[in-house]
Amino acid sequence: MIDTFGLLSNATFIKSPFYNQRPNQAEISLLAIHCISLPEGQFATEHIKNLFTGCLDCSADPSFADLQGLEVSAHCVIRRNGAIEQYVPFEQRAWHAGVSSFQGVDGCNDFSIGIELEGTDCTAYTEAQYLALADTTKHIQVRYPLITKDRIVGHSDIAPGRKTDPGSGFNWDHYLKLLID
Ligand SMILES: [Zn+2]
């Protein structure tokens, strides 16, 4: 279930400071799927939470040097075990897509929901993640019916050449099939 603020009832809400108001709430019409792991390939760490809440210790790993001062978030993160964390209510604008465009409209953060799967581009995602993502997608589509099947995309689709996630490890056929079951 999704409440009036756009919070999922089965997610743990952890408030991110990295969000603002959408220019037009009525236009929530795109779902963007991403992946993240920090450090890359290491799972179940606290670093994603720390990044999205502005608390990341950038000296904790050499690969975090680029993340200094970065203000990013996503609406949800789905962990390897299927647990869902929500960082920004869907009604608000999360900062996940960056420079992006869908069907000629720039700035996808304005009108999209961003979900991060804990993972890497080329590691298979877990079945628990597919099930949680499909279940969450169904709730989102009930609440935001403009998000039709052809408006569910990867970050790589809206930021080609710049982003590659969720990568070849993401089985689109399997996910889309779960949506109709
Ligand atoms: Zn992404």
TrEMBL record:
- Looking at its record, which EC class is this enzyme? hydrolase
Where does the record place it? Cytoplasm
The GO terms describing molecular function are: N-acetylmuramoyl-L-alanine amidase activity
EC number annotated for this UniProt entry: 3.5.1.28
Q: Which Gene3D superfamilies match?
A: Peptidoglycan recognition protein-like (3.40.80.10)
Give the reactions, separated by semicolons, that this protein catalyses.
Hydrolyzes the link between N-acetylmuramoyl residues and L-amino acid residues in certain cell-wall glycopeptides
Tell me, in one coarse class, where this protein mainly resides.
cytoplasm
Entry annotated with the keyword Ribonucleoprotein: no
The record ties this protein, via InterPro entries, to: Amidase/PGRP_sf, Amidase_domain, NAMLAA_amidase_2
* UniProt record similarity statement: Belongs to the N-acetylmuramoyl-L-alanine amidase 2 family.
Name of protein:
1,6-anhydro-N-acetylmuramyl-L-alanine amidase AmpD
Q: Which organism is it from?
A: Psychromonas arctica
Lineage of the native species? Bacteria, Pseudomonadati, Pseudomonadota, Gammaproteobacteria, Alteromonadales
